[in-house]
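Structure ticket #2291
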Amino acid sequence: MRYYDCTITNPDGSIFRRWASHTKGVFDPAAQNVEFDIITTLYSTPSGAQSFEIEGVALTDLGNASEFAPQYENTGALDPSKQKTFTLMAGMQKGLPLANPLQIGRITRGTIFQSFGNWQGTEMALNLVIVPSVYSYDNPGNIVLHWKNGTTLESALRNALSIPYPAKDYPLSINISPTFVATADVQHYSSSLEDLAQTVQTLTEGKLSPNDPGVMIALQNGLLNVYDSTYKPKVIQLSFTDLVGQPTWIASKTIIFKLVMRGDISLGSLVQLPAKMQNAPGMALTSAEAYPSNIKYKTLFNGVFRVNAVRHIGNYRSADGAAWVTVLQCVPYE
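Resolution: structure written out below.
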């Protein structure tokens, strides 16, 4: 059973609007249809904003769609105190034999950048454009990196991010090598997280090894994650039944694979593809020669990969199984 829970909150934390497929854990057959495309990449190579649409909204919401968007002062400057926060939980709830509720998770958390309503015939929908980071060139974050000579990059980043991204709102996790020590004072001002991420990666690229990508910064689901190639989280074992189609190489040392929608995988995670067919419901175990096509029951690739891009694609009421998926872009873990 597909699952979603969308919440829009005011700056004070109170709930402004909420839509969900399950009310108090009980499936709602009248739940509204939602469509979304949530792309999350490293901030050194940002991919743009995220889109969300919900159908069948109240006429009052449709006519006052501007209430969801950022508010501006008379001077034309953005008023950060009036920005609303968008949070989306998604995955699979109980109801289907292979559905795993433990894979439900928060797939995005950010601020609403734009909002607009559509009304065509009998179809009404509210469209939102979401950005994970609260800061931009219009609303600079004044991020100052002061990396003093002889100090580690970890301490410099903690100081730089602690003020614009307080830990109570944006938990910070840094997992980088302690060998990143400044040999001279480095000072850099950034108005956005993208600028900081590009600067840090430029300063550290190739330092651990000739082809090392350097230190990477990701903001996913409201969590700030800073890591490098030495970061080794617990490997997530994928099941054969998690996959939707075969993994595919799209570039040198870059592979993508499509999974049933899940919110428990983030940037920097290590995932392992299944090595062979598994004993799962619906599969009759017999001799290999008896299979109509043996290759359908095993993946073409296996091994451990590091996730460097996550894309959640959802259309709640679509009958297509590929309309509720998570697409991972990964590189081999060495």
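Closing remark: The radius of gyration is 22 Å.
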